[in-house]
């Protein structure tokens, strides 16, 4: 589904990622770890086309991201659910509307999806806060809403950047179970995290591989 | 076709997409107020152009009309010379009408200077013939033929003192049209800037929309709709106010006709609804351009 | 005192605080453009007010001046009656000058109607006396005394046809002043809205400043400084453009004097620098009020 | 230094915190834990005057926050360094300027503090990124910059809300040592976190107490 071919990236001040090669087949589950500033978020952005590699290529579903126009990318993003590290919301819409946003912009019938939406909000424990606006949520609540938005479109791929950074242990476990469940249904999952306990817990539920990013290179399959 | 559909979409279209633009941003009000002020001024400029246009036309007309031929001749030759002038005038293309002045009319003209008691009938007064011409009248040719055939006749067409007035009216009309285009330009610039300000302020919103898979057209439409409607509404308000204000301007009157008479007359009122329509169109095009170029830039 | 210090701070003050406001926001340009457009219009309105003011003054003056007394009397009484009129005029307060017209002058006035060959000296022409009055001249009283003492004398002050013109000029002047205050109001409203838009857009910035311990005055000053300077700069630009445009307006001329002659003359040019100063002041007060009330509201 | 006297808080939809009494003496070190949405951030906001209690009172340095005007609060905030959960920066200023912001707004001479500033940026590992703007930083880098900004004024109190949510283990240890060091210099420290490993590590370095917030009430001194 996602394939990096000698992909490199530089923000202009020296090369950050160099010659990364990596294939995430459909249905796989990967963790991405590495020190702060190593480029985890950058790598994830390459994987959903928010950034385009400055060398090499990134293929999404067999298509090179550099060849996709803005509308092509928009189409692709509807198939990839993303939890951003700095959960991005539209502040004047309610949490329910924010979670439903991917449905809205792709022209889906909101009424038909209402049941689905409410069930999902219940799952991540946000049902009582559904009518609140993003700035009225706690940090952990925002992260849970971001996860809900990432999976509302039933995407083929789920990419999550530090999805549990602000969440207590119990809730983390619950979100992890959700991701494991989705992976069992055939979704490809890629999670960047610095929470080693989470990874250890995950090993019990799914067959996940851990990718370690450091010094601009990737050590695939590293065990903890 | 595409433009038309986009326009209709913008006017009626996707209320759901509209929700994603924050509701009552200050730049939105700035747009409304700007459009209102511009429309108000546009109404005035329009009134000025129309009034001066009317004025210039009226004067240009009367230039051709209000000429006088004075025949100074000994009394016994006067009738013959007047007849000769009449014959020449009859043969001149572009003369709509020619009429010798009655003696009483002539006396009325002279009264301020000579007093009512002057025995005009005893005087060897010149005869005056009022000539009404059309635009085709070849004044120079007529003058030469008169000089050659009727030595006592002098053609006086008042051009000397009226021409600068007509010229001035023409200039004012040009000025009014200039002001109109200036205003339209300013409106476009301001709506563009307001839209850009809104887009810049809503960059986080746009970023989120992009991240969840919105296409450019979806985002642009939301902004275009908002700004087109606001600019049109603001312009409608300004037009109404401008219309009311011009209605209270001094009336056209015979005496001060060129200075007053700025108000709209008759069918000219029908021009007013065009102002908000035009403003809406300008806003639509300006916002759309701003939105699409901003979206390409934000990348 | 407090205001003055704030103004100086705003004009020269804390460039460091200035840095915390994002540099080239679109609302900033909106302010510049708005100020420029308003200044441009203000210059025109000012020119209009001044020109119509001059015009109304000139006409009001000439109203009192350009009166004529016509003495129609048998030739043998004419000199005596003219002398009687002169005596009355000499005794009337408010008469600046009175002068009997020469026969040649009178002949020149009559030429268009009577032709150059008329034997005026054989005619019992009325005598004309040109009267130059001041504002104090009691026209009605003079008329009555003339009627009582010199039956052949008629006072003709042309009021009938000039008064509406003066009235029209007065109205135009009022209109110009109205336009000026409208423009000032619009400027203030727009700068306020622009400042509010900027404050709203920069709410995150303000929040951060607050969180690290900035006082209201510090935040307000940063915005006030920015907007005062931009509004003044924009207004200066608009004023220069407006000045250039009015300089290209048709010249005042004897013939079309009331319609043209909109340009500034002499010392009136000195009014122009006041426009950006005034715009800056308006922007300062508007922004300051907007900033302080917004800061109180954001809490 | 900070004292809550029967303080309660409600955002309008039911009471969130009720009758909390708590005293943080000068020089103390506290951790605040509790499930996501329990009100940790809200409690911290009460402690630095960003929110005022809807019942009871919060005293800062002996003064009731409800009696302070906006300028009085501004003055107080210069004595309390805060690391916000959603690190708040001014995006058009560089990281160096953002960290120096408290100095700027209180009218200090920046030139005189330059050495101090650079040293601090080095400490949190941001020296190479000092000229970057906040959106160009990684999540963990932003959190470190926020901590730097919190302590640049040499405040008497340091309040940190999930300061290590996005930071890898090694860097967390380093920041913890910094906080412990400051505490030894007499600063009052209050840290909200869900990272239990961090708290365990801290116990070795300082004598910290753990406050558990759940269901709107505070269990002071709870041991892990
Ligand atoms: N837009 C940008 N412009 C310039 N540099 C950037 C930009 N975004 C990130 N960087 C730099 O690139 C490096 C990697 O950033 P990235 O966000 O990928 O790290 P990360 O591994 O996700 O770190 P963390 O665990 O702290 O989130 C950092 O040093 C960061 O400062
Ligand atoms: N401005 C607000 N308006 C309304 N409700 C709010 C507001 N801020 C927070 N809340 C609600 O108050 C509750 C407590 O929020 P708070 O941010 O204090 O939690 P927290 O303990 O910090 O959680 P987390 O660990 O997820 O950061 C949450 O349910 C949240 O939705
Ligand atoms: Mg990251
Ligand atoms: Mg919190």
Distance between the termini of chain B: 28 Å
The count of domains of chain B is: 2
Form type of chain B = rod-shaped
* Largest sheet: number of strands, sense, barrel closure of chain A: 6 strands, mixed
Largest sheet of chain B: 4 strands, antiparallel
Which descriptor suits the 3D outline of chain A?
globular
Strand order, largest beta sheet of chain A: 6-7-8-3-9-10
Strand content of chain B: 5-15%
- Number of separate helices of chain B: 10
CATH topology of the largest domain in chain A: Rossmann fold
* Oligomer class: heterotetramer
- Structural class computed from helices and strand pairing of chain B: alpha+beta
Largest inter-chain contact set? B-C, 56 and 57 residues
The helicity of chain A comes to 25-40%
- Briefly note the structural class of the backbone of chain A: alpha/beta
Cα-atom Rg of chain A, whole angstroms? 17 Å
Order of helices and strands of chain B: HHHEHEHEHEHHHH
């Amino acid at each position: 589904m996602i394939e990096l071919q000698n992909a490199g990236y530089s923000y202009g001040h020296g090369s950050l990622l160099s010659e990364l090669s990596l294939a995430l087949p459909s249905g796989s589950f990967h963790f991405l770890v590495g020190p702060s500033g190593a480029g985890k978020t950058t790598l994830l952005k390459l994987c959903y086309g928010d950034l385009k590699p400055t060398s090499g290529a990134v293929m999404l579903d067999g298509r090179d991201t550099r060849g996709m126009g803005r509308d092509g990318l928009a189409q692709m993003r509807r198939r990839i659910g993303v939890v951003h590290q700095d959960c991005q919301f539209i502040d004047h819409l309610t949490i329910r509307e924010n979670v439903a946003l991917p449905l809205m912009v792709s022209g889906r019938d909101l009424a038909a999806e209402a049941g689905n939406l409410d069930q999902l909000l219940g799952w991540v424990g946000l049902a009582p806060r559904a009518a609140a606006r993003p700035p009225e949520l706690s940090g952990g609540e925002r992260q849970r809403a971001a996860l809900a938005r990432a999976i509302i479109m039933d995407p083929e791929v789920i990419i999550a950047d530090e999805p549990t950074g602000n969440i207590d242990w119990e809730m983390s476990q619950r979100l992890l179970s959700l991701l494991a469940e989705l992976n069992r249904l055939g979704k490809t999952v890629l999670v960047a995290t610095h929470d080693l306990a989470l990874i250890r817990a995950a090993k019990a539920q799914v067959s996940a591989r851990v990718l370690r990013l450091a010094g601009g290179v990737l050590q695939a399959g590293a065990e903890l | 076709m595409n433009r038309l559909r986009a326009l209709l979409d913008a006017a009626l279209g996707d209320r759901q997409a509209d929700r994603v633009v924050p509701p009552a941003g200050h730049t939105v009000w700035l747009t409304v107020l700007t459009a209102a002020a511009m429309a108000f001024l546009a109404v005035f400029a329009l009134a000025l152009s129309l009034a001066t246009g009317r004025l210039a036309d009226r004067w240009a007309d009367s230039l051709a009309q209000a000429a006088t031929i004075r025949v100074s001749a000994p009394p016994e030759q006067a009738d013959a010379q007047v007849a000769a002038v009449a014959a020449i005038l009859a043969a001149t293309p572009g003369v709509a009408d020619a009429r010798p002045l009655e003696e009483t009319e002539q006396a009325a003209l002279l009264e301020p200077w000579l007093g009512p008691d002057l025995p005009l009938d005893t005087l060897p007064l010149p005869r005056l013939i009022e000539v009404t011409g059309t635009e085709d009248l070849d004044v120079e040719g007529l003058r030469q033929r008169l000089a050659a055939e009727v030595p006592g006749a002098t053609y006086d067409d008042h051009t000397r003192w009226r021409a600068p007035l007509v010229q001035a009216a023409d200039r004012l009309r040009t000025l009014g049209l200039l002001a109109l285009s200036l205003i339209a330009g300013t409106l476009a610039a301001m709506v563009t800037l307001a839209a850009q300000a809104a887009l810049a302020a809503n960059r986080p919103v746009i970023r989120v929309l992009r991240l969840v898979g919105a296409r450019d057209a979806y985002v642009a439409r939301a902004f275009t709709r908002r700004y087109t409607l606001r600019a049109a509404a603001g312009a409608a308000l300004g037009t109404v106010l401008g219309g009311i204000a011009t209605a209270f301007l001094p009336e056209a009157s015979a005496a001060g006709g060129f200075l007053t008479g700025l108000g709209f007359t008759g069918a000219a009122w029908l021009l007013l609804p065009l102002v908000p329509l035009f403003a809406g169109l300008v806003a639509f095009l300006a916002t759309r351009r701003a939105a699409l170029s901003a979206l390409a830039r934000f990348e």
